[in-house]
Amino acid sequence: MRKIILVLNHVQAGFGSDENAMLPPGGKKSAIGPGKTLEPFLAELDAKIIATLYCGDQYFASNPLEVQKKFVGFAKKFEADAVLCGPAMHYPLFGEMCGSLAKAFNEQGIPAIAAMSLENPATEKYSKDFPVVKMPKKGGIGLNDSLQNMAKLVVEKANDHDTKELEEKICF
Predict the structure, then answer these.
(1) Which of 9, 19, 98, 170 is most exposed by smallest CB count within 10 Å?
(2) For residue 147, with 0-12 CB atoms within 10 Å meaning exposed, 13-18 middle and 19 or more buried, which class applies?
(3) Distance from the first to the final alpha carbon of the chain
(4) Could you tell me how far CA 99 lies from the centroid of its own chain?
(5) Under a CB-based contact definition with an 8 Å cutoff, are residues 84 and 115 in contact?
């Protein structure tokens, strides 16, 4: 069973919207938010979300190095096989958080991917550094396929497989 960590912002983690944008880093040892929808897709691939890490995206913007250090440390402590950052859809601050964190995880030897829409400025900024799974702007049509693709790619990364062919089909 592969161990996956999910990274969400305050909104996706269920802590409200702008009033909680300064939410400090936290986590739960379970799938929350979109992680609940991802669980069956991951289970089919013999993987499981062992924890969901979350943080207000404005808190992250003000304290990126602190959050990176905490989240990378947590992933190492729990021996995560891979990390999925997002889905950030078209939200710029969440996209930047996902991109920056996925890059930090990869630099520390922990395979990480992100998921966001083409409209997210972070997509262009980070898609050359690590795989960014394509997703619709706000959900709706194509969201289920995107979630399946996120699960496939993060598990392939967790298994240390060559993902070049899969990335060409599902990533930017």
Answers:
(1) 19
(2) buried
(3) 28
(4) 9
(5) yes
Q: For each of the chain's 172 residues, which pLDDT tens digit applies?
A: 999 999 999 999 999 998 999 999 999 999 999 999 999 999 999 999 999 999 999 999 999 999 999 999 999 999 999 999 999 999 999 999 999 999 999 999 999 999 999 999 999 999 999 999 999 987 678 999 999 999 999 999 999 999 999 999 999 9
Three-state SS string over 69-94 comes to HHHHHHHHHCCCCEEEECCCCCCHHH
> Rounded to an integer, what is the distance from CA 161 to the centroid of its chain?
19
Handedness of CA 14, 31, 6, 114 (dihedral sign): negative
Enter the pTM of the model: 0.97
What type of residue sits at position 147? L
Report the C-alpha gap between 55 and 74 in whole angstroms.
14
In this structure, what is the dihedral angle of CA atoms 21, 29, 156, 92, given to the nearest 10 degrees?
0
**Which residues have C-beta within 8 Å of that of residue 153, sequence separation ≥ 6?**
113, 131, 133, 163, 166, 167, 170, 171
Alpha-carbon gap, residue 41 to 29, rounded angstroms: 18
Going by C-alpha positions, the residue among 120, 119, 149, 144 that lies closest to residue 133 is: 149
Residue 136 burial (CB count, 10 A): 17
Contact between residue 157 and residue 111 where contact means Cβ atoms under 8 Å apart? yes
